[in-house]
Structures are given as structure tokens and as C-alpha cells.
Amino acid sequence: MSAESARRSRKPRTTRATAEFFDLRLYVAGQTPRSIAAVANLKRICEQHLEGRYRIEVIDLLERPQLARGDQILALPTLVRKLPVPIRKLVGDLSDTERVLVGLDVRPRSPAKS
Amino acid sequence: MLDDPSQGPVVSIMPRVKRKGVGDGRRTPVAARPVPKARTGIQGLDEITGGGLPRGRPTLICGGPGCGKTILSMEFLMNGARRFGEPGVFLSFEETVEELTLNFASLGFDLRPLSARKKLSLDYVQVEPNEIQETGAYDLDGLFIRLEHAIDSIGAKRVVLDTIETLFSGLSQTRVLRAELRRLFAWLRTKGVTAIVTGERGDSGMTRHGLEEYISDCVILLDHRVIEQNATRRLRVVKYRGSTHGANESPFFIDESGISVLPITSLGLHHRVSAGRVSAGVPALDDMLGGKGYFRGSSVLVSGTAGTGKTSLAGYFAEAAGRRGETALYFAFEESAAQIVRNLRSIGLDLEPWLRKGLLQIHAERPTTSGLEGHLSAMRRLIEDTKPSAVLVDPISNLISVGTSVEVKAMLARLIDFMKPTQTTALFTSLTPDDRHPDATDIGISSFMDTWLVLRNNETNWERIRTLDVLKSRGMPHSNKVREFVLTSQGLKLIEVVRRGGRALVGSERTDFRGDSGGTPQKARRPSSRR
Lengths: 114, 531
What we know:
Number of strands of chain A: 4
Shape of chain B: elongated
Helix content of chain A: 25-40%
Largest interface: A-B, 33 and 25 residues
Strand content of chain B: 25-35%
Radius of gyration of chain B: 30 Å
Distance between the termini of chain A: 27 Å
Strand order of the largest sheet of chain A: 2-1-3-4
Largest sheet of chain A: 4 strands, mixed
Structural class of chain A: alpha+beta
Oligomer: heterodimer
Number of helices of chain B: 16
Number of strands of chain B: 25
């Protein structure tokens, strides 16, 4: 996966704003309503604002608890922006779209470019 | 009394708990049995808590920065892993694993072998203040999962969370955090681990964020205060549900061997007593003490003003121990070892052979090198290591410079309590400023002392006459006569007062009268003598 992300991130883009590829990792615990909401919210936001230049990996810590340590996960759900650097962390079910966009440092793309 | 800490006090408290349980119907009535405890293995702490921390429950340890929370917690885990077969998880919110390992290595604790053998799991939980964007509802399941994973992977029975309040700096929704902490502590209970949760002392409450609201099984307060430039650490068990505990503040000390808590009264008055006797090193003094000297395992106080011969008397006692083939430990707070040896040689007493044979050890230190607790702890350790039959402290009055007389008294009481069970005979010297009015310290400590010898300097008839008398000596017939106490190059002599015509003759009067040296060949006869 990482090789593919790397390849895709090297693709030349027309503008600097659209050049960035977002590698996102969402940590959840089980299929709780909150987890499901977070996954749905993230997919919606990415489709609207990062179409074609994102990758989402959902990690269920109940299945892989050892992964919580690496990304210093405390609160759940936590969204980690692995790329572009620097790494950023967002906690919560991602229901506040404005805060998610600010947190991910994504400017809504102008209609002309989409 | 504390040999069997779980018994006794608990029995008296349990029926009340039981009645309450039946009455309010919430608690299931249980048979009267003590709260199960997990030993900390920390010297003194298990005594105060009557056997350790509440097993399977969280304990809150709070105190200001640098008061020893982390060390105490880590020692709890290390002892658990090494001595009690209980692996432990240390979740640090403040220091990284590398920092922890380094810091403990500098204290002389190597955490790596225990980690390697999976007896200890160290994890650093990073909380970046204000770096986390909050985008909606969340909980702390991530922390729970990490903790559970750590516990399960090594089968941990002990857990430390140090300092969980750091979470408040990273997450802004205080209400959520509080609910989650409550859930965390409840979860720890169901998990059955004995946990220590540390908290920083707050301005209003015991901790900044009121952790004491959630953890009420056992709360221990650590304190680090400076009194007249000397830092003293203290520990107090504020509360211990379902168990009696020492309520006093107990001084504690941190050094290479970890934490030592020194309970104010750890032994009580239950030690064995000996009818055996040891020579004071001066035959004439033994005569005054029922002909046999001090009781073995007793405490002797030698008090007197400057230059009355206290150290000489101590030297004789140390030398006598050496001659019996017994070990003596000499704690000198005024003179260096070389100085003591040289000075005693001037009265014909040679300590050198015993020093060489290792039967005598002199530890000279300025009182101000550490606080009272530091001295006490170091002395206890040396006594434990060498197991001497005699201990000398010369002089205890110098310790006043690092503590109040109340503290010195408490320290001596603990030192004596510590030596009694091993039948160690202790001799303390004390410098008193005034002959007629013994120092307050002397009066304060005299009640711990079995034998009290008073040395005086009497200035009469143009000369100073040293005298010795036995102010008290428990449990033995002792002389009530004042003896003349003479230091000569051939040794220390106690001379019975010579009477002539209803008048006591001392000093030059006596030697003149006897026409011999009377054991004072070096003493020049004074022309000023009127007879």
C-alpha cells in the first residue's frame, strides 16, 4: 500500500493545492455507532473535498490493539493524517466538518477547478 | 506488633462495615475479614499501611513536583515483579520510556532486565497540548485498549498511571474526561489489578483535577518541604478504606536502595530485653553500675558540657567492644576519625588495632551533609550491614543543627527502636551548655535512655574538677556517689572521693593529702593550692 501511495503522491499535478495526496488513518474500536458515524463522515468529507487524492485506512483497535502505541492513540475515534506531513491528529466522530477541514488543513476547492 | 499487620486492628473495624452493609442493603454482608493487600516491598510503607496497598484496587498517590511519586510507584512495580511474582505495567504520561530508563539508571535501578523478561512493561502515552483537533464526540477507548493490551501481554497484576492528569492538558472536554476517568478506575477494579494513580498536588484539593473524588480506597500524600535549608520528605496515609493505618506523617528518604519510609513509631515497646551485661570499658564505672556495666541492648546517654570527657568515655566503650571481639560502629558528628583516634591516644587509649581488625568502624560526617532523615537512613543501613553489638553516636546534640529538638528526639526514638530487637547497645553523647540546667534535648531524650551518665566540670578552689555520676540506670543497683573523673596519659580514672573531717577532698587537695599521684601523675600540683 505504501508503495502505491508513494507512486500516486509523485504524480504531477496542475496546481500546488491539488498536488497534495492525503494518506489518512482512522482508528476506531469495534462497530459502535460512533465508529460507524466517524467512517461515514470521513468518507463524505473526502469525497467532497479530496476527490481522487486520498486514501483511508480504518484500523479497528479491538482487532489490532498493538497499533495504538505507534500513533499514540488515546481517544477514539482518532483520525491521523499521515500525509502530507506533518502528521496531524483529529479526535472525535468527525461530525463537525469545518473543524475536520481546518484540522486536515484542506481548503475547499473552488468550483472552477473541480 | 507489626509482625502480623493484617490482624488485630482490622477485626475491630469490620463489624461496623458489616452492619452498614446489612442496613443499607447495597453491600452484600461479608464475613469479617481483612481487606486483601498487595505488599509494596518498600521499607516502612508496608508497616504503616498494615501490609500494603489495597489489592485489586486503585490507590491515589499525590504530592507536589519532585516529591517522589514516580519513584515510589516504580519501586512498587519493581518489587512486585522481583519479589512477589506480580508483573507490572507502567504507563507514563510525562516521561518517555528512554527518559524513565535513564532516570532510574541514575538512581541505580536498571529497568531493562525486568522489561526484557516481560515482568515490567513501560509505555509512554504522549499527550500533546493543543495539538489535537476535536471534531465531535469521543471517548478514551484508545487508552483503555492500550492499557488492556499491556496488562494482558505480560499478565500484569500491578499498574501505575503516572500522571494521568496530563490528559487534561491535551483534551479540552473536561466533562468527557471526567466521565472517562471514572470509567477507567471502575474498569481497573474489574480488571483486578492493584493500581497506583499519581496526581499532582492542587491548590484547593489534593490533586489539581480532583482525582480523589474517583479514588477513595486509599489515598497517600507525599510532601517535600524545606525546614531551615534541610529538605525533608514525608508520607502520610490520608485514607484507607476498610483498614486501619498509621495516620502520622512519616519521614521518608530516597537513595540508591530506593525509598525508605521511617515510621515514627514502628516497633512500640515489644522488644525482648536482655539480662546480659557489657562492660563500659572502665572497671570503676562498671562498679558504679552494679559491678557489671551496661545492660546489653540498652541505651546509654552521656551528657556533659564541653571538655568533660564524653568522647573519651565513648572511646572506652568502643575499645571494650573490640576487646570482647565484638563489632562497634562509631558515628562521629564532630570530629574526623583520625582526630578521634589521635585524641584518644593521648589518654592512652589505642583504637587503631580494632580499626585494623574491622571490629571498629568510625563514620565521621558533618551533621549538615544531609537532613536528619538522611542520617537516620544511612545509619540504619550501616547498622543493618555490619550488625554491630555496640553503636556510638557522638554527639547527638550536633544534630540539632539540622533539625529541631523534637525532630532529633523522634529520630533517636526510631534509631533506638531499630536497634533494640538486635540487642545492640547504644551510647549517645550529648553536649550540654550548662552544668546545672541540663539541656532540653537531654530531658527530652532521657526517657528513651536506660542509663544516663552526667559529666560535670566543677570549678572550685582554682581548679576545674571533672566529675561523673550515674543520674539513672534502670533495672540495676547503681552508685549514687559522684566520682572524680580524671583523664591521664595512662587512661581514664574514676576516683572515689576522699573524705577528711567530713569534707570531700578532690583534685590537688586529694593528691596533696594522699601524698601520691592518686592516678594523676601528669597533673601538675598547683602552687595555688591552699593546703
